[in-house]
């Protein structure tokens, strides 16, 4: 009979990307984990992990086996959650990944109150602008801000907010260069753009009229907070999601340009692996974000 504990040991070793970090996380000797995985490989008759003194790689068949072993681990966590009453009081660790701007602008204000609301839950946020494989890297939730629909990834997608993109500029810039009265006026203004290849902005008003405009490229940056600071300094007009420029508008350091028009919208979507999305703690985090996230 197969030892199902070995399946779980293998999943933990892959999750932590090595025997040593897995041993520290589980508080068991590294030799014990190595022995259990070796026994599992012997039972299955295949090599799951290629390991040397310097490298740790999962074989192709090991990757396939991991997906099922990790699913079994998640189901075990769900079963334990029900037994321990987690449906009433969520607990355990919830791993979240998001881009750096999303973490700073949205999650920084949401996660501390979440942690206070669920004292038995541990929230782990990984902020990065690199591509993250949610399933392979063991995350429960990925928070994505996107302009176009996300591709079908096989994960649960829950759209939680839609934020308008506004044109903004510093009052001093507009006093010096004049206030645009209609979208075509933007061609004579300095634009703070997200990239050199940007074709400008697609503007839409409440009547559904759509126009394409391109200001004179004055400053280029692919990071929203940099564009925000450039606009506040008076360099020109930029397009930013409302949640990023709201505080500056309220403080008076930025004002809206062409207030009857918007330059598109950005959607916030939560991505979850199917089985992890069933865990009570993950559902509690999702519900909290949906309830407290500002946006249309």
Q: Spans with pLDDT under 50 lasting ≥5 residues?
A: none
Mean pLDDT rating = 87
**Rg calc:** 24 Å
Structural class, judged by helices and strands?
alpha/beta
Number of helices: 9
Give the fraction of residues assigned to helices.
25-40%
Q: Work out the strand percent.
A: 25-35%
Shape: elongated
Element pattern in H and E: HHHEEHEHEEEHEEEEHEHEEEH
Report how far apart the termini are. Answer: 55 Å
Care to count the β-strands?
A: 14
- State the major sheet: 9 strands, mixed
In short:
This protein is α/β, with parallel strands linked by helices and 296 residues long. It is 39% helix and 25% strand. The mean pLDDT is 87.
Overview of the structural elements:
- Helices cover 39% and strands 25% of the residues.
- With 296 residues, it is α/β, with parallel strands linked by helices.
- The strands form 3 sheets. Strands 3, 4, 5, 6, 7, 10, 11, 12 and 14 form a 9-stranded mixed beta sheet that branches.
- β1 and β2 form a beta hairpin.
- α1 crosses α2 and α1 crosses α3.
- The protein is elongated.
């Amino acid at each position: 009979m197969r030892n199902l504990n070995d399946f779980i040991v293998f999943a933990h070793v892959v999750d932590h990307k090595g025997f040593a970090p897995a041993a520290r996380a589980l508080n068991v000797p590294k030799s014990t984990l190595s022995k259990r995985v070796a026994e599992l490989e012997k039972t299955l008759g295949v090599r799951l992990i290629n390991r040397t003194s310097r490298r740790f790689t999962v074989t192709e068949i090991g990757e396939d086996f991991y997906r099922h072993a990790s699913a079994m681990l998640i189901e075990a966590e769900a079963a334990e959650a029900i037994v321990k009453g987690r449906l009433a009081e969520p607990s355990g660790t919830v791993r979240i990944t998001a881009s750096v701007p999303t973490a700073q602008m949205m999650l920084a204000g949401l996660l501390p109150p979440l942690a206070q609301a669920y004292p038995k839950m541990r929230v782990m946020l990984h902020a990065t602008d690199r591509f993250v494989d949610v399933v392979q890297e063991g995350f429960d939730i990925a928070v994505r801000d996107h302009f176009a629909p996300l591709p079908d990834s096989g994960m649960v997608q829950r759209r939680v907010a839609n934020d308008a993109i506004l044109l903004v500029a510093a009052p001093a810039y507009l006093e010096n260069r004049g206030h645009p009265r209609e979208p075509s006026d933007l061609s004579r203004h300095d634009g703070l753009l997200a990239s050199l290849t940007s074709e400008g902005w697609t503007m839409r008003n409440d009547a559904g009229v759509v126009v394409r405009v391109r200001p004179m490229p004055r400053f280029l940056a692919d990071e929203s907070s940099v564009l925000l600071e450039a606009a506040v300094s008076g360099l020109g007009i930029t397009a930013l999601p409302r949640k990023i420029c709201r505080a500056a508008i309220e403080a008076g350091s930025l004002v809206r340009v062409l207030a009857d028009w918007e330059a598109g919208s950005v959607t916030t979507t939560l991505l979850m692996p199917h089985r992890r999305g069933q865990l009570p703690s993950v559902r509690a985090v999702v519900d909290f974000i949906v309830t407290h996230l500002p946006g249309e």
